[in-house]
Amino acid sequence: xxxxxxxxxxxxxxxxxxxxxxxxxxxxxxxxxxxxxxxxxxxxxxxxxxxxxxxxxxxxxxxxxxxxxxxxxxxxxxxxxxxxxxxxxxxxxxxxxxxxxxxxxxxxxxxxxxxxxxxxxxxxxxxxxxxxxxxxxxxxxxxxxxxxxxxxxxxxxxxxxxxxxxxxxxxxxxxxxxxxxxxxxxxxxxxxxxxxxxxxxxxxxxxxxxxxxxxxxxxxxxxxxxxxxxxxxxxxxxxxxxxxxxxxxxxxxxxxxxxxxxxxxxxxxxxxxxxxxxx
Length: 279
Description:
Layout: E1 4-8, H1 13-24, E2 28-29, E3 32-34, E4 44-47, E5 50-55, H2 59-71, E6 75-79, H3 86-95, E7 100-102, H4 109-119, E8 123-125, H5 131-146, E9 155-162, H6 171-182, E10 193-195, H7 198-203, E11 215-223, E12 230-238, H8 241-259, E13 266-267, H9 269-274
Parallel strand pairs: 1-2, 1-6, 3-5, 6-7, 7-8, 8-13, 9-10
Antiparallel strand pairs: 4-5, 9-11, 11-12
């Protein structure tokens, strides 16, 4: 059975993009989205021609979700909320046994993983849903595992640029830095340079002006101790389509795991890649 997708929250650009991607894939988009109290004044939001009703926090939310579970037996929730609420959202999904795909970054990640693992709730949690970017992350993890310390003595500089509304450091950058540390580099995630001012994004990072409201430009520069050898890794993404399509792939993957009653319940995007679960 194909998953029936509920996106939280469709009030944001990423949620909108995922809703539209789900419709393009021929999936049912549940016409409800959980949102903040401030957002709920709009009552509904249009997603690819579907009127989606906004559901604010409150006593009616629990009853609605239980009703939706009966109405949509293959329900899979997608979470693109904000870093400040992801642990609360995870608690809500656990409480109602809602399988979910979470692309929201930030929050207490250790607590998040423990919440879901302890509950044995089916979920895909990843800081990046872009398939090719995830493949790059997996490549870095493999290199770190097979060649620990290969870059000992090197210096690392990491610069990442996202739209000015992004509040936290890129989860992708953090994951790649973790691999570099295994390769022997001395570096802390607090040293990641964040570029959020539009003028710097255009002049320094070379972000097209048309992409200022939606982009992810990352550069990782390595230099040997004596300055004689340098490496540079770069991945630049314009727009949100690649993340939205990857999120839908993750939903399809998770639905198959649920249908097959897989023993493992918590996954990441590398698991999705390894399963060949890409359209």
